[in-house]
Write a structure and sequence with these properties.
Length: about 300
């Protein structure tokens, strides 16, 4: 089976699975999977095809989340405009941070992106519009184009699904375009690509900005799904999670980051449920133990 046939079949399987997902699991959990799958695909565009490891992608995801949430809750913007504003903010942040970081390579590039991300995190802690440690709560989904009520979980799910499909298609087009082929050649042998006349820094900066914009789109969409934005979205652990998702699924592959995101988010959800059940069991045992001890004391005193 050639690569094109494999990708076509894999896309059909992915489409069918995600299309049927809200009838099998809670739609909100399905939307969370789609948001983080998009985030992982955006990151994979940078590390998998550009060869650039960023430890700071949480700043794009988080700023997209905060700006989108603020536009929807404070300014009353429609959901589609709020999401686009979040993505545009991450685009601008990507241009600035990319211009600073792209001049370095390897671990130096990774450390610069981490430092910039921490600066953005502390900005979000102090900025008045972010709500500090409380975050932005009560984000309203409103109506899509003034027609479709997105308070309906199924309608919201398929709206998020449409965003994911459009973004996934864009990423697929980028990596198979002449630009993507040059980007892969830079990843494999940058000096040789430069000797052929390609401006490597410009290509890497373009890939960085594209990845940042799509990460911001994922963050803004996630804010609408969760109806809040918090410091978790912009904290360094979020950058670590997307690295793990991409490596687990297979960096440099088209569908790998989607699989990695589904696995990691499902494991997080399962562990959270297990911890909740364990805490509830411990509380029940402690209550039962206290009650038994009290009855024993009363019978002894009698």
């Amino acid at each position: 089976m050639n690569e094109r046939a494999y990708e076509r079949n894999a896309f059909i399987v992915m489409f069918v699975v995600f299309a049927a997902l809200p009838f099998v699991i809670y739609p909100n959990f399905g939307m969370q999977l789609l948001c983080f799958a998009l985030f992982a695909c955006a990151f994979n565009l940078l590390i998998g095809f550009g060869g650039l490891l960023s430890f700071g992608h949480a700043m794009f995801f988080g700023m997209g989340s905060y700006v989108g949430a603020y536009a929807a809750s404070a300014w009353g913007w429609p959901i589609e405009a709020a999401i686009l504003l979040g993505a545009a903010t991450s685009l601008l942040l990507g241009v600035v941070s990319g211009f600073i970081a792209i001049r370095r390579q390897g671990i130096y590039f990774a450390m610069i992106t981490l430092a910039l991300a921490q600066m953005v995190y502390f900005f979000c802690v102090r900025a008045p519009f972010t709500g500090g440690e409380n975050g932005i709560q009560g984000v309203k989904r409103s109506h899509l184009l003034g027609i479709v009520d997105l308070d309906n979980p199924l309608a919201m799910y398929y709206f998020v699904f449409a965003i994911f499909l459009a973004s996934f298609g864009l990423i697929h087009r980028i990596i198979h375009s002449p630009f993507g082929q040059v980007l892969k050649s830079i990843r494999e042998n940058e000096p040789r690509a430069i000797s052929l006349g390609y401006r490597a820094e410009r290509y890497k900066l373009a890939a960085f900005v594209m990845s940042a914009t799509l990460a911001g789109l994922a963050g803004a969409t996630k804010a609408m799904v969760a109806e809040n934005a918090s410091l978790t979205d912009v904290y360094w652990t979020m950058s670590g999670e997307v690295v793990l998702m991409t490596l687990l699924g297979g960096m440099g592959t088209v569908f790998g980051p989607v699989v990695g995101a589904v696995v990691i988010i499902s494991m997080q959800s399962s562990s959270s449920s297990a911890c909740s059940l364990s805490a509830a069991g411990s509380w029940a045992r402690s209550r039962h133990g206290c009650g038994a001890g009290s009855r024993h004391d009363l019978s002894t005193s009698t």
